[in-house]
Design a protein that fits this description.
Blueprint lengths: L1 E2 L6 H7 L7 E4 L2 E7 L7 E4 H4 L13 E4 L6 E3 L5 E4 L5 H5 L6 E8 L4 E10 L12 E7 L7 E4 L14 E4 L5 E9 L2 E8 L10 E9 L7 E11 L7 E2 L3 E7 L7 E4 L2 E2 L9 E9 L6 E3 L5 E4 L10 E10 L6 E11 L7 E6 L4 E2 L7 E8 L9 E6 L4 E7 L2 E6 L10 E10 L6 E11 L7 E2 L3 E7 L6 E5 L2 E2 L9 E5 L3 E2 L2 E2 L4 E3 L5 E4 L10 E10 L6 E11 L7 E2 L9 E6 L7 E4 L2 E2 L10 E5 L9 E3 L5 E4 L10 E9 L7 E11 L1 H12 L2 H42 L6 E2 L6 E4 L4 E4 L17 E3 L12 H9 L5 E3 L1
Length: about 800
């Protein structure tokens, strides 16, 4: 004989035959597969790459991978062909217990571009658990006075499977006294009983042995058995009866230990000792005998531990009331305890980093990390929302139920903020709400977005001429706020030609230190100002760079001795004829000399060296004019011939000099006249020479006046130009005077000009000396400084 729980579930039984066949579907942004539990290693689950629309040939290059949350690696994917297969044994009952739905959630991640897909693999139940009774033997004591149709509760079997596989059918071995009866009072509780169909006679049959068989609805069917031993008792023929056959109680899971639950009450129609009752807990489903405590005298039930909704939501207590008759009679009832959820579990946050550090040039929308949240509570207590703090260029985007992506929502700059410390807060919907946090450190990766920069756009450098080769003249320094190789700066010259020669033949720059070296001695007389650019470039890709301008002023040194000009430039002395009757102060000759230097180094003075062993000379030389003139009347005692040695020296340090020798012949008055007459008779020689000398003096005078005027006008124009704009790059060679007021240096600088001091011969006395100023007065100088500048011999123009 048997009883079935399956009812209208035949259609579901037909579906179970297809458990070994996996299926997939795409919906709500995810792929769904199903696979039976206990499937062998390598069992095919699905073509995950094909179902997601991915190219199989691109799986390896796009770093195709699968991530499972909080689970062992039950499933694995072949990165070559995108096939999902079973990796290890899956026991549905171990994985999900008696939950009606058991799924493994996977995240499929591919890069280039980054994409995240959600895959749900449902684990289908198979009939791998046989029904089990709580004991191998159940004993029943039934009085012979029991009337037909009396019911005797039995402990049913349980099956760890779910669905059709857990639907049990009971069968009882053939007998003439009992049949099975199943009473269903609710979806969660079903009572199995023995129904007496024929009166018992203890004298005829004192003990009955039956076999109770439980069969599940799986294919193939599995069974479990229990031995029923029924003892037929005599005498006490009234059972205790409870006020209710079922007591229903609802409790919050946080009730304290020792809390009173309910009081069951039974009565017995017998008298005396046969109506004295004693209560006992016969069974608790699921089996937790230590969780409840029953007072055997009063029937009060108390909590004897801690309830946990997440562990079990429902308990069924079987209570017996036994009288003290002989034999004792027993009454039965059930207490159904429903556990209510409270918000006692904080959310859990799991973070999977993907793209760290984040590059500065990462576009908005870049996925940085995957975040999943969960809460063991149910209802509103298990509904979790996420938020991100502090405010910044990041945001959270919900991709699926309880799954979020941390996404870049703006621009980042490593030089401003090298790293962000983010806090993800998960808050449930309970009252009061519980929350959990997870900290994410998002580093910013550097890109080469900053060029090296110099402190100044232009540097002014002063270098003395005649420097040794390889002399360090300046150091340029550029800084780059980037990091690592993007901040590694190298220096180089911006090549150009200086006249007929390349710039690299004059100077070089060290690629790492930025030190600038002069490769050869510089000559102020050839090169007064050297302007060039130094380039600074970083090692990033692509490299960035910037230039800085250098103005190198070559300062003059006294490295050129004065040079005496003809006619007194030769080794042989030049003879000058002088009449003894000339007046005091008569100019006998004029020494002309030039100096290639500038400033004080080119300021010449003349000195007449005394003749050894001679008395006081009747001649003198002008200190700055070079004119040799008489200091007194000439006498016969002075001799007929005198050799004059003139020393020409500059004002440099150290002083350099040159000498000129003049032979003076003294003539008597008659000789002077004859000489004059003789000279007058020779026009082709002396007259032509004197005429030519006069013309030359006039030419030199005109050239000198024009040069001085041009120098003044050019100086004023350059000063105005330099005050209005930065100096242009170029080379100012010899013979091109410039005046530069360097704001960076804070003082005046100069460049040299070649000069000649010229004079005529014979009777012409008008000659010119021109000196270029070393430190010209600044336009903003005071009146006193201007007056002192006017008194400076270097600033004078003297006419003799």
């Amino acid at each position: 004989m048997g009883f079935s729980e399956r009812g209208g579930l035949k259609f579901q039984q037909l579906l179970l035959s297809f458990l070994l066949h996996t299926s997939w579907e795409v919906g709500s942004g995810q792929v769904h597969y199903s696979v039976p539990e206990e499937a062998k290693h390598g069992t095919f689950v699905g073509r995950i790459a094909q179902d997601l629309g991915l190219e199989v040939g691109e799986l390896v290059s796009r770093l195709f991978r699968v991530v499972s949350k909080g689970r062992r690696d039950y499933l694995e994917v072949n990165a070559q062909n995108g096939i999902l297969f079973v990796n290890s044994r899956i026991d549905r009952e171990e994985l999900c217990g008696r939950s009606p739905v058991c799924s493994i959630h996977l995240e499929v991640i591919v890069e280039k571009p980054l994409q995240v897909f959600h895959v749900e693999v449902e684990i289908k139940d198979i009939n791998d658990n046989a029904p089990m009774f709580p004991a191998t033997e159940q004993r029943l004591f039934i009085f012979e006075s029991k009337q037909p149709d009396s019911r005797f509760p039995l402990e049913g079997a349980s099956d760890a499977d779910i669905g059709v596989n857990s639907l049990l059918t009971y069968g009882l071995s053939p007998n003439e006294y009992f049949i099975l009866e199943m009473q269903t009072s609710s979806e969660q509780s079903k009572a199995l009983s023995l129904l007496l169909r024929k009166s018992l006679d203890r004298e005829d049959t004192s003990e009955i042995n039956l076999l109770l068989t439980a069969t599940d609805g799986g294919k193939p069917e599995l069974t479990g058995t229990v031995q029923l031993k029924i003892s037929v008792l005599d005498v006490n023929d009234n059972d205790p009866e409870f006020d209710q056959s079922e007591y229903k109680v609802k409790l919050l899971e946080n009730v304290a230990n020792g809390t009173f639950i309910v009081k069951v009450n039974a009565t017995d129609r017998d008298e005396g000792i046969n109506k004295v009752l004693q209560y006992s807990l016969r069974a608790i489903k699921p089996k937790r005998n230590d969780l409840f405590r029953l007072d055997e005298d009063t029937g009060e039930i108390w909590i004897n531990g801690n309830l946990d909704f997440e562990e079990n939501k429902f308990y069924e207590l079987h209570v017996e009331a036994t009288d003290k008759g002989n034999p004792p009679m027993v009454g039965h009832c059930r207490v159904l305890v429903e556990v209510l959820d409270i918000n006692d579990n904080t959310p859990e946050v799991a973070v999977t980093s993907l793209s760290l550090p984040v590059r500065e040039d990462a576009p908005s929308g870049t996925v940085i990390a995957l975040i999943s949240v969960s809460d063991r509570d149910s209802g509103a207590n298990g509904q979790v929302t996420c938020s991100l703090s502090p405010p910044g260029p990041f945001t959270l985007v919900s991709t699926f139920r309880n799954y979020y992506s941390l996404v870049l929502d703006g621009t980042v700059d490593r030089e401003s903020v090298p790293a962000y410390q983010l806090v993800v807060t998960a808050r449930d919907g309970g009252t009061p709400a519980l929350r959990a946090t997870a900290r994410i450190s998002v580093g910013i990766g550097d890109v080469n977005d900053n060029a090296p920069t110099f402190e100044q756009p232009v540097y002014t450098v002063f270098v003395k001429e005649n420097n040794p080769p390889g002399h360090h003249i300046f150091t340029v320094t550029a800084t780059d706020p980037d990091a690592q190789e993007n901040a590694l700066v190298s220096y180089s010259l911006v090549e150009r030609r200086v006249g007929e020669r390349p710039l690299s033949s004059y100077v070089s720059v060290h690629s790492e230190s930025g030190k600038v070296y002069a490769l050869q001695p510089l000559d102020h007389e050839e090169l007064e100002l050297l302007q060039f650019q130094v380039s600074a470039r970083d090692a990033g890709f692509p490299p960035l760079g910037s230039n800085v301008s250098l103005q190198v002023f070559v300062l003059d040194e006294n490295d050129n001795a004065p040079v005496v000009l003809p006619p007194h430039a030769g080794v042989s002395p030049v003879t000058e004829l002088v009449s003894q009757s000339v007046a005091v102060g008569h100019v006998v000759a004029k020494i002309r000399a030039v100096d290639a230097d500038s400033g004080y180094n080119a300021w010449l003075s003349y000195e007449l060296l005394p003749e050894v062993g001679a008395g006081r000379s009747p001649f003198r030389v002008g200190l700055y004019t070079g004119e040799i003139s008489t200091t007194r009347a000439l006498e016969e005692s002075d001799g007929r011939r005198q050799m004059l040695l003139v020393l020409v020296k500059d004002h440099g340090e150290p002083m350099l000099s040159a000498t000129a020798t003049v032979s003076v012949s003294l003539l008597e008055n008659g000789q002077a006249l004859q000489t004059s007459s003789g000279l007058a008779k020779q026009p082709p020689a002396s007259s032509i020479v004197k005429g030519t000398a006069l013309v030359n003096v006039n030419v030199y005078l005109i050239i000198a006046i024009c040069s001085v005027s041009s120098l003044l006008v050019l100086s004023l124009l350059l000063y105005v130009a330099l005050r209005c704009s930065t100096p242009s790059h170029g080379i100012y060679g010899p013979g091109k005077p410039t005046l530069v007021c360097s704001k960076e240096a804070g003082s005046w600088s100069y460049s040299q000009q070649r000069r000649q001091v010229c004079s005529g011969e014979g009777t012409v006395k008008n000659d010119l000396m021109a000196f270029s100023p070393n430190l010209p007065p600044c336009p903003v100088s005071s009146d006193r400084e201007q007056q002192e500048a006017k008194k400076d011999p270097l600033g004078k123009i003297n006419f003799g």
